């Protein structure tokens, strides 16, 4: 962020953060707040709700509202649960819309979940497309296109599972997928390094189109190029969430407390959470929104309109064939 003097001003992205990062919001004048829509997908119990509360730095969904753990073995159909939270991030107002998907991957056949999510994403595109085509625009139109899908990978330490590959492959062209390792404190640092490598190998081998931090040419500023290279090397982000805040030397610190030690959620040496939070709500919020509009939506729009054109052409051809057969019969 540049202050009035034109100097770079380093800011701590959150009260819990251990490091200062250069602020880089480019939407300072979005007075009403910048809408940002994030979907959370992952199997039950991987820490999506805890992640949501940790990301928002408040209890958006309380433990009481969480799925009843005793009933957790009963597979329920997947749902879309919406939570809207107003955030003030480094002087920038963000209207964060979170769409949680409890029930994902709980059944034996996950096809219905993939289809439901795909349809959800496409419906939001269709609404924008319809709005664009209206003669009189609706000033209250709410753009609900999903800008980022945070996909939680189970911390098995092995490699991606079929459900992960299938899910990310299918939806990568419809949304910016950011893969994360959920409950990553269950792996040792060495296991985590290996697991990350295996996941990235799978992503390359199966050609899974996850969000990639832009690598050069288009980015003129050297700092951004370096930052993006660092973020690429960090993928998939290893996240830890918690509900406990302790006081450490007069500073609030978010932790998971174990008999053998303490995991500090916002400490870069313990997890990638703080870095991911900064990516989502600060440094890359613009990239994620722009890519959704300029690449993902544009591709969908072209497909949809050319599909419609093809469908219309087919219908017209069928009508012509029918007409000519009538003519032939009549003759
Ligand atoms: N070790 C560890 N446990 C976590 C972490 N995040 C959440 N948990 C715990 O995991 C359990 C499930 O967390 P939730 O946040 O409810 O997970 P969820 O994905 O929302 O679960 P469902 O809504 O039931 O699908 C709780 O006991 C959390 O305290 C984490 O980062 N590490
Ligand atoms: Mg939950």
UniProtKB/TrEMBL annotation:
GO terms for molecular function: GTP binding. SUPFAM superfamilies: P-loop containing nucleoside triphosphate hydrolases (SSF52540). Keywords: Cell cycle, Cell division, Coiled coil, GTP-binding, Nucleotide-binding. The keyword Methyltransferase does not apply. This is Cell division control protein 11. The lineage of its organism: Eukaryota, Fungi, Fungi incertae sedis, Zoopagomycota, Kickxellomycotina. Belongs to the TRAFAC class TrmE-Era-EngA-EngB-Septin-like GTPase superfamily. Septin GTPase family. It comes from the Eukaryota. GO terms for biological process: mitotic cytokinesis. It comes from Coemansia asiatica. Residues 1-24 are annotated as: Disordered. GO terms for cellular component: cleavage apparatus septin structure; septin complex. Pfam families: Septin (PF00735). Residues 32-307 form the Septin-type G domain.
């Amino acid at each position: 962020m540049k202050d009035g003097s034109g100097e770079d001003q380093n800011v701590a992205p959150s009260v819990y953060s251990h490091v200062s990062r250069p602020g880089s919001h480019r939407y300072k004048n979005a007075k009403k707040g910048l809408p940002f829509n994030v979907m959370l997908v992952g199997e039950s119990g991987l820490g999506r709700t805890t992640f949501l509360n940790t990301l928002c730095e408040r209890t958006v969904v309380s433990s009481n509202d969480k799925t009843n753990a005793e009933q957790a073995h009963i597979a329920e159909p997947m749902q879309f649960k919406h939570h809207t939270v107003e955030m003030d991030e480094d002087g920038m107002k963000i209207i964060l819309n979170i769409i949680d998907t409890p029930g994902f991957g709980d059944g034996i056949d996950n096809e219905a979940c993939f289809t439901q999510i795909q349809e959800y994403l496409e419906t939001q595109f269709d609404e924008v497309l319809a709005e664009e085509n209206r003669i009189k625009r609706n000033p209250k139109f709410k753009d609900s296109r999903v800008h980022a899908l945070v996909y939680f990978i189970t911390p098995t330490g092995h490699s991606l599972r079929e459900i992960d590959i299938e899910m990310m492959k299918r939806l990568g062209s419809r949304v910016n997928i950011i893969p994360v390792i959920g409950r990553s404190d269950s792996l040792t640092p060495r296991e985590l390094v290996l697991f990350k490598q295996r996941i990235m190998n799978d992503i390359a081998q199966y050609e899974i189109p996850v969000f990639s931090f832009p690598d050069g040419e288009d980015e003129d500023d050297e700092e951004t190029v370096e930052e993006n290279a660092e973020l690429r090397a960090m993928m998939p982000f290893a996240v830890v969430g918690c509900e406990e805040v302790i006081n450490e030397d007069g500073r609030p610190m978010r932790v998971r407390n174990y008999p053998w030690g303490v995991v500090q959620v916002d400490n870069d040496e313990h997890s990638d959470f703080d870095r991911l939070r900064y990516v989502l709500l600060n440094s890359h919020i613009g990239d994620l929104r722009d890519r959704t509009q300029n690449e993902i939506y544009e591709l969908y729009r072209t497909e949809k309109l050319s599909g419609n054109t093809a469908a219309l052409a087919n219908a017209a051809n069928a009508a012509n064939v029918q007409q000519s057969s009538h003519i032939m019969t009549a003759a």
